């Protein structure tokens, strides 16, 4: 079965302390066994017209869609999501089974 990905692109509100949001997200994923991996980054290369104001990307990997569903419905995630979406001006979420074309080198 393919891994399942949860991708979030965010444009934070101007008054948000992004570091506090990141600490909360790092705490959340560290407490959730269903999260196989978590990476995030801040865009520093794209031209504004291409990124359309989105500044941060968050990517979680799960072993299966069932693991993602368990994560998404967990009370800690539900609570964090409410806080997270109060901080963003705009967000895009994509949840998808991963199709590996070139696996990571060992």
- Total of helices: 4
Query: Would you tell me the structural class of the helices and strands?
Result: alpha+beta
Query: What's the gyration radius in Å?
Result: 14 Å
Question: What string, H for helix and E for strand, traces the elements in order?
Answer: EHEHEHHE
What share of residues are in beta strands? 25-35%
Distance between the termini: 20 Å
The main β sheet shows up as: 4 strands, antiparallel
Q: Could you tell me the mean pLDDT? A: 89
The residue fraction in helices comes out at 25-40%
* Strand line-up across the major sheet: 2-3-1-4
Coarse morphology: globular
Instruction: Give start-end ranges of low-pLDDT stretches.
Output: none
Oligomer: single chain
* Quantity of strands, as a count: 4
Pfam family, one: Dabb
Domain Stress-response A/B barrel: 4-106
Organism: Rehmannia glutinosa (Chinese foxglove)
Protein name: Stress-response A/B barrel domain-containing protein
Question: Topology of this protein?
Answer:
Blueprint (H helix, E strand, L loop, with lengths): L3 E9 L5 H13 L4 E8 L5 H4 L4 E7 L2 H9 L1 H13 E10 L9
Antiparallel strand pairs: 1-3, 1-4, 2-3
Helix pairs in contact: 1-4
Organism: Rehmannia glutinosa (Chinese foxglove)
InterPro entries: Dabb, Dimeric_a/b-barrel, HS1/DABB1-like
Pfam families: Dabb (PF07876)
Written description of the protein model:
The chain is of the alpha+beta class and 106 residues long. Helices cover 37% and strands 32% of the residues. It has helices at 18-30, 48-51, 65-73, 75-87, and strands at 4-12, 35-42, 56-62, 88-97. The chain has a 4-stranded antiparallel beta sheet with strand order 2-3-1-4. Helix 1 (18-30) runs antiparallel to helix 4. The mean pLDDT is 89. Homodimer.
